[in-house]
């Protein structure tokens, strides 16, 4: 293929010969060749009809030829305006830039072409398409290019006023709905705050009950451990006392049992110390937090008592 065939060409085509490549377009269009923002399609259409916007100075768009048909790669919104103006006889052709199909990748073209009607029609993305078309017809009739159904210009003005009134009524409805929402918002916030407060209170109550149950279980375990330790200690003391009584009845009185200077004997002093330690352990008001520590201390005292008793018997 010659290299000249791969270069873009500037040609003029009728808007009806160019097909849309997209299935829908936005309601805003970019018409200024020097940058700037976008304007609504109806405003651009009215500007062209009034002569404020020159069609020849609008930014050109690119087309590509696929199977003998010209498709717009860019400028589908401008093509919509041109087709509308061609229908009313305002223009017959526009200037476009034709690109060879070989310059583009097929995957990119398949993503670009979203039309579902083979480019014949396109949908403008507006909230109310019926209202948009009625406004478009009113703009065309205002400048004498649309299909006139009224007898004079006064009727056309009435149609435009009716459209404006319809639009204003919808705006008033939206404003009323917003006011209702704004008015009911404090009640919704109060209800939401009350619900959150109730949930927080329920959660705190649940956690508090769980903490109380945990403390009650720990206290119950401590009491059970203390009671078991006391029972074992008393049993050991009773057994030791019974053994000491049995041995003393079978043996003679030892020298250690004789009182010194009218005081108690060594056995009596030792037994008094053991009884005092046992009484202190039983009447102790301080409680350790963990039952294991209390049980360990009790076992240690128990072993000490048993060792003292054994020491007495060995000494005898």
From TrEMBL:
It comes from Branchiostoma floridae. The gene is LOC118420802. Residues 172-200, 243-269 are annotated as: Disordered. It comes from the Eukaryota. This is Uncharacterized protein LOC118420802. Residues 246-256 have a biased composition (Polar residues). Residues 172-190 have a biased composition (Basic residues).
């Amino acid at each position: 293929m010659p290299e000249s065939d791969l270069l873009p060409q500037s040609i003029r085509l009728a808007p009806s010969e160019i097909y849309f490549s997209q299935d829908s377009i936005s309601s805003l269009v970019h018409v200024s060749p020097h940058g700037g923002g976008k304007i609504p399609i109806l405003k651009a259409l009215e500007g062209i009809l009034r002569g404020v916007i020159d069609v020849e100075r609008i930014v050109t768009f690119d087309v590509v030829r696929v199977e003998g048909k010209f498709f717009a790669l860019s400028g589908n919104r401008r093509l919509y305006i041109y087709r509308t103006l061609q229908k009313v006889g305002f223009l017959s052709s526009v200037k476009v830039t034709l690109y060879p199909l070989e310059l583009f990748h097929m995957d990119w073209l398949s993503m670009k072409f979203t039309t579902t009607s083979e480019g014949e029609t396109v949908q403008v993305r507006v909230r109310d398409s019926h209202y948009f078309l009625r406004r478009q017809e009113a703009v065309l009739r205002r400048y004498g290019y649309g299909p006139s159904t009224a007898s004079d210009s006064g009727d056309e003005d009435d149609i435009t006023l009716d459209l404006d009134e319809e639009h204003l009524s919808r705006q008033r409805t939206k404003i009323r709905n917003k006011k209702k929402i704004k008015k009911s918002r404090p009640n919704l916030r109060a209800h939401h705050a009350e619900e959150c407060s109730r949930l927080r209170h329920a959660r705190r109550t649940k956690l508090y009950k769980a903490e109380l149950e945990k403390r009650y279980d720990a206290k119950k375990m401590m009491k059970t451990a203390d009671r078991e330790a006391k029972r074992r200690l008393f049993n050991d003391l009773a057994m030791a006392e019974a053994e000491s009584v049995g041995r003393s009845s079978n043996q003679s009185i030892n020298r250690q049992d004789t009182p010194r200077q009218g005081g108690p004997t060594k056995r009596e002093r030792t037994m008094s110390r053991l009884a005092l330690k046992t009484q202190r352990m039983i009447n102790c008001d301080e409680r350790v937090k963990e039952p294991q520590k209390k049980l360990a201390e009790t076992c240690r005292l128990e072993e000490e008592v048993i060792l003292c008793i054994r020491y007495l018997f060995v000494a005898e």
